[in-house]
Design goal:
The complex is a heterodimer of chains A (about 290) and B (about 90). Chain A has about 290 residues and is mainly alpha-helical. Chain A has twelve helices and two strands. Chain A has one domain: MetI-like fold. Chain B has about 90 residues and is mainly alpha-helical. Classes of the chains: A mainly alpha (about 290), B mainly alpha (about 90). Chains A and B meet through helix 1, helix 2 and helix 12 of A and helix 1 and helix 2 of B.
């Protein structure tokens, strides 16, 4: 087989490459430069070597934020992925109600992050918010500004409300691509509902589910605006996730060096996890391609 | 470029990475290859192995620094050994 390889097509990627260089690569290089220096403003820098990295690696504050971040991402994945699949399985297959469900479920996805934060910030208030007022009327002591558990529950429920539809829509798209013949064969074999899900629906959804997990992981791992608007990282530091801590350090305290070292390590963790997801995803595709 | 706060060590760091990328691009064009499956049970090309090497080296350097295992340049020796292992077995 003499297939011509036309590498010239790569030139078509140049505009994107330029765009990415300006929006990501050059700022990232600047962050690397900041991470080995100290500054007191006025664009004057002093060499600090690897001190900031050493400081950050020994910093309890960073490890605590990382642990909180990992717990947060794990919880929202554990809720949103099964819930999204459950919703997708129970959505109408065709007709008016199918379109109705699709449109209704996309609505939360269209709301900007800070608006979602504001909605939940008011929604949870005991004096004027529907949720807070109702819980208070039921005799439940709920206050997300003072109680750690309440703050976590609010932030998690808010994320679930905002993003479960994304998982549901992706899972629904995966389900729609399964030909009817599979279901007919299962019916002939008198397969149980669970067997249909386990051996037909789940394997066929595996690809889109990996994308859903990757998207939700990345997004939750970088979450900033919503918890910042609702809890401001509090009470105390209870909901201070990595991004919130990073912004406090870089902009609030103007500690550019430590913040740069911190963000590079943050970046490396994200890169590692994304690479793992990407590798698993492409290998899944290859395995499906072989079958 | 002053706003980017360049230093010689960071410039050298990026030059090395740029040189590596360039070398591997030229290699990929001059000597095309087929991906192979190594110990990780995933298909890798030379470029993939370079990526795994660089990412792993970053973590090795951080671990060396965080655990206070000695002068930092020695970490680069460990990275070299790691790179050799990745290119041989992954």
């Amino acid at each position: 087989m003499n297939k011509t390889v036309n590498q010239k097509a790569w030139f078509l990627v140049l505009p994107v490459l330029l765009l990415v260089a300006f929006s990501a690569v050059i700022p990232l290089m600047t962050v690397v430069n900041y991470s080995v220096q100290d500054t007191f403003g006025n664009n004057q820098f002093f060499w600090a070597g690897l001190d900031w990295f050493r400081d950050m690696l020994a910093s309890e504050r960073m490890w605590d934020a990382l642990v909180r971040q990992l717990i947060f991402s794990a919880i929202i994945l554990a809720i949103e992925i099964p819930l999204g699949i459950f919703v997708a399985l129970h959505m109408p297959k065709k007709g008016f109600w199918s379109s109705f469900c699709l449109v209704t479920m996309s609505l939360p996805l269209l709301i900007p992050w800070n608006v979602v934060g504001t909605i939940w910030q008011i929604f949870g208030r005991v004096d004027i918010g529907l949720l807070g007022y109702t819980l208070d009327a039921l005799g439940i002591d709920y206050n997300y500004t003072q109680n750690t558990i309440d703050a976590w529950v609010t932030v998690i429920v808010m994320d679930v409300w905002h993003w479960t539809s994304l998982v549901a829509l992706l899972a629904y798209a995966g389900l729609r691509s399964i030909p009817d013949a599979y279901y007919q064969a299962a019916k002939i074999d008198q397969a149980s509902r669970w067997a249909v899900f386990r051996y037909i629906e789940l394997p066929k959804m595996a690809g889109v589910l990996m994308i859903a997990i990757l998207l939700r992981f990345m997004d939750s791992f970088m979450i900033y605006t919503e918890p910042f608007v609702v809890t401001g990282g509090g009470p105390g530091n209870a909901t201070t996730f990595l991004s919130i801590d990073l912004v406090k350090m870089a902009l609030g305290q103007f500690d550019l060096g430590p913040a740069a070292a911190f963000s590079l390590m943050y970046f490396l963790v994200i890169m590692l996890i994304s690479w793992v997801f990407y590798t698993v995803m492409t290998n899944l595709d290859k395995r499906d391609g072989v079958q | 470029m002053a706003w980017m706060a360049w230093t010689w060590p960071t410039a050298a760091f990026f030059l090395v990475i740029a040189a590596l990328l360039l070398t591997f691009t030229v290699l990929a064009i001059r000597y095309p290859e087929t991906p192979r499956t190594g110990v990780l049970q995933i298909e890798t090309t030379r470029g993939d192995r370079l990526f795994i090497t660089l990412l792993g080296s970053a973590f090795l350097n951080l671990a060396w620094l965080g655990l206070d295992l000695g002068p930092q340049p020695y970490a680069l020796l460990v990275c070299l050994a790691y790179a050799a292992a990745v290119f041989r077995w992954v």
